[in-house]
Design brief:
Blueprint (H helix, E strand, L loop, with lengths): L1 E5 L8 E3 L15 E2 L2 E6 L8 E7 L1 H9 L2 H32 L6 H12 L8 H36 L3 E4 L2 E4 L7 H29 L7 H12 L1 H4 L3 H29 L7 H31 L10 H12 L8 H26 L7
Antiparallel strand pairs: 1-5, 2-4, 3-4, 4-5, 6-7
Helix pairs in contact: 2-3, 2-4, 2-11, 4-5, 5-8, 8-9, 9-10, 9-11
């Protein structure tokens, strides 16, 4: 807090606290604003000489400036979009997880009835607390990483067009890497999936345990303790490799489809931006396409992550896929696909609607007006 001695006057009296845009009037105290500070001016008093003005930091302006940084706005928008979407669509996630790992009925409605009979309405939101804790950082990191890597890659490719691509030397031979041929969107999507998975995978493990076996894992703290005591840190990263293998094609395809469809649609209809319903449909189609392509890997990943609960954990992803093929045939690789699509399509569409809406809010010029 700074102190400014004003000229004239000998004494101080009452203090007045100001609000933005309030200015001092006359020499008898009041408030002022300038250089990002909110002022408090003390009037004359019989015991102290001079007139003193205290400058208080304008916290609201600092917050607005912080949120207007593109990277921060994208990070916050991703977190808010993920939280709002999961709060609404949690029951579909519960049913989808049960069907994929083979718990209970193989039908969507049958699984719904079983959950209602054993756990009531609360069973549809089983594991939703950890799901919310998981999705907020996951979506924030994923969407923030995608936007940042995409911009960085686009900027780098523009430089490579002028200065040439990076080269590697093998003996006397110089080889130019054709990095300009790579899609910034695809690279951003792959990076988004990898980074978010590495950071948030333990939360995914906890969420699955709470969803599948609520009796053995009644709370987040107990689930964490049991997993850590049984398997150590490695238990919290169970299935990480198959998760990364499954996430790479999904995330790459997901973001590539979304950006490509959105750009093509805007170009065809000569639009600069899309309406919320249009974003909803494009997001849903992107999620459905990516999920369909990578779904067998998702089945294998879920088998590995919760296999210990059933006493038969496959040693690797290939073994998990072989096990599914042996037990259920080719159709088993897409067991739960319908339930997954019912979850993925609205989740993807709603997430993009919320994300673009929050970005519009946080990056709006009115935010600092």
């Amino acid at each position: 807090m700074g102190v400014e001695e004003a000229a004239g006057g000998k004494n101080l009296a009452l203090a007045s606290i100001c609000f933005p845009e309030v200015r001092a009037v006359g020499g008898g105290g009041g408030a002022f604003k300038g250089d990002g500070l909110l002022g408090v001016r003390l009037a004359k008093d019989d015991y102290l000489d001079g007139e003193t003005a205290f400058g208080l930091p304008d916290v609201a302006a600092a917050v607005r400036t912080f949120l207007r940084r593109r990277e921060i706005a994208e990070f916050v928008s991703g977190a808010m979009a993920g939280a709002m979407t999961k709060a609404v669509l949690a029951p579909l996630e519960t049913i989808r997880t049960r069907m994929i790992v083979g718990v209970g009925s193989k039908q969507i409605f049958g699984s719904f009835v079983e959950i209602m009979e054993h756990n009531g309405w609360q069973g549809l939101w089983a594991g939703n607390t950890i799901n919310m804790i998981r999705i907020i950082p996951t979506q924030a990191i994923e969407l923030g990483t995608f936007e940042c890597v995409k911009r960085s890659m686009t900027s780098a490719q523009e430089r490579w067009k002028e200065d040439g691509c990076p080269k590697i030397q093998l003996g006397g031979l110089k080889i130019e890497l054709p990095l300009h041929l790579l899609s910034p969107i695809a690279i951003g999507g792959a990076a988004a999936g990898i980074v978010s998975t590495l950071v948030c995978h333990p939360l995914e493990v906890l969420k699955d345990r709470l969803t599948i076996n609520r009796e053995a894992y009644p709370s987040i703290a107990l689930a964490f303790n049991k997993i850590y005591r049984a398997d150590g840190i490695g238990g919290l990263y169970a299935g990480l490799c198959p998760t990364l293998v499954g996430m790479l094609p999904y995330s790459t395809c997901y973001y590539f489809m979304y950006e490509t469809i959105k750009t093509s649609y805007c170009r065809t209809h000569k639009k600069k931006s899309l309406s919320r319903p249009e974003l909803l449909v494009i997001g849903a189609l992107s999620g459905l396409t990516a999920s369909t392509i990578s779904f067998p890997l998702e089945v294998a990943r879920k088998r590995l992550m919760v296999g210990s609960l059933q006493g038969k954990c496959p040693p690797n992803m290939i073994a998990a896929l072989a096990e599914v093929m042996k037990e259920e045939g080719l159709k088993g690789l897409y067991r739960g696909w319908a339930a997954s699509s019912l979850k993925v399509m609205p989740t993807s569409g709603v997430t993009w609607v919320f994300y673009e809406a929050w970005k519009d809010i946080l990056l709006s010029p009115q935010l600092i007006s």
